[in-house]
Amino acid sequence: xxxxxxxxxxxxxxxxxxxxxxxxxxxxxxxxxxxxxxxxxxxxxxxxxxxxxxxxxxxxxxxxxxxxxxxxxxxxxxxxxxxxxxxxxxxxxxxxxxxxxxxxxxxxxxxxxxxxxxxxxxxxxxxxxxxxxxxxxxxxxxxxxxxxxxxxxxxxxxxxxxxxxxxxxxxxxxxxxxxxxxxxxxxxxxxxxxxxxxxxxxxxxxxxxxxxxxxxxxxxxxxxxxxxxxxxxxxxx
Amino acid sequence: xxxxxxxxxxxxxxxxxxxxxxxxxxxxxxxxxxxxxxxxxxxxxxxxxxxxxxxxxxxxxxxxxxxxxxxxxxxxxxxxxxxxxxxxxxxxxxxxxxxxxxxxxxxxxxxxxxxxxxxxxxxxxxxxxxxxxxxxxxxxxxxxxxxxxxxxxxxxxxxxxxxxxxxxxxxxxxxxxxxxxxxxxxxxxxxxxxxxxxxxxxxxxxxxxxxxxxxxxxxxxxxxxxxxxxxxxxxxxxxxxxxxxxxxxxxxxxxxxxxxxxxxxxxxxxxxxxxxxxxxxxxxxxxxxxxxxxxxxxxxxxxxxxxxxxxxxxxxxxxxxxxxxxxxxxxxxxxxx
Lengths: 237, 337
What we know:
The complex is a heterodimer of chains A (237) and B (337).
Chain A: H1 2-15, H2 19-54, H3 66-85, H4 88-94, H5 96-103, H6 108-133, H7 137-145, H8 150-161, H9 163-183, H10 192-201, H11 206-234
Helix pairs in contact in A: 2-3, 2-6, 2-9, 2-10, 3-6, 5-6, 6-9, 7-8, 9-11, 10-11
Chain B: E1 2-11, E2 18-28, E3 33-38, H1 44-51, E4 59-64, E5 67-68, H2 74-82, E6 84-87, H3 99-110, H4 115-128, H5 144-156, E7 162-166, H6 174-191, E8 194-199, H7 202-208, E9 211-216, E10 219-225, H8 226-231, H9 236-244, E11 261-269, H10 277-285, E12 289-299, E13 302-312, H11 316-328, E14 332-335
Parallel strand pairs in B: 3-8, 3-9, 6-7, 7-8
Antiparallel strand pairs in B: 1-2, 1-4, 4-5, 9-10, 11-13, 11-14, 12-13
Helix pairs in contact in B: 3-4, 3-5, 4-5, 5-6
């Protein structure tokens, strides 16, 4: 019984001839996610830090500065919330003109990266903000006491102290991006999600759909595993 | 050296706000260890933080070597803080970087030394505080006492002239406290530092401080030499703090009510304490007395003695004679009843 099932599975696998498409799709997904993650961190980390520094949770040492600070926070917070409240599918279409202006096309892997970055940056920035809030207040007290500037405090104390949870936040964002990138297939973004929709959904080819899902599961597991390892290495507790 | 004039601090949080410090005036001399003691909430940490303006006074001013701290701009204030070491109760070390990097942080901030020279300086101060071999470890791998040594090393890295210690030993066990206090004494002598030290323990004051100020609900209630505060406390809070540290100043009930018996409290310190005073006073006055309670010992380097005695005197003249003999030997004698 079991032997016959295995035999059938094996022969099905040998007969399955979509491997080139799946290989290409996997590569596209990895490229999209990787590039988008890079830009998300590059923009989201400073943005999240700025959100934290201007937030009510972090009191400025200069009282005269506090008014400016609170207005800056309201503005940033509003923009972040605005981007986060637009569903990704709608965002994909809304930002097409911007995508064309930046990367020259709104199609394919290149065309998918800008909307992915726009969607995940506010998400990541909020994660950064909440991670930084958890940093002990003693860190700021120490930095004030040794006469550090805000820049020195952020770069030499705040971010290193938060490195482990920041790494966890990057992992969460990476996995969210893998999910988002599947949706990018809708506007011709390519990747595994695109493959699953075109073959699996539109052509009722269950095998292709299952194969893409299996690979996505595998990628997510690997990303989470690597992320956890890095977090453990960074936490000197 | 450090002067605090009419400083007050008011926190306008809540409905009524909170007066943390009320019209404080203090003068801390160069090269002394100055203690600030009080119960929790007395405002002692706030007072300490006024010195480097980690807290700004609501009114009043702070002057360090003729430089008014409140008049400095942000940049000058940062430069001033770089020259004042600060030791925290809970160490405040960064867990994500090594001991070496923790101690190097103030040197990087000051930016006056090249990285190689910074590391050299870190090795110097680590050796000074007795943990030369711990530089590559992370703070989590150290014991409480070692962590506070890192905290002290970090405070000393930039060659400060002033060291501010906020309950530096309160999170440590008694044995570690003693060794950290000894370290503070050693570095104070070796580097000619001025140390301002906040604590709630009279034991700490007794071991290291030269002068002390007692705070109660934001006000200075007693201020002066440590020996005076210990031997002749004037305020109830001082007495209570002494009693809590096992340094009871209350007079035991002797042979009360007898007309010719007088209970006298005698105290002395410094040069006087080196003499065989009690026998000498007995011989010179020609009067006998019995000791009801007392102790002799050391406050930092100052020897002291304090005894409650019961004296049999026939009349007022004899009593006055006894007190004047005490006076010629620099013994402070106070008639209790």
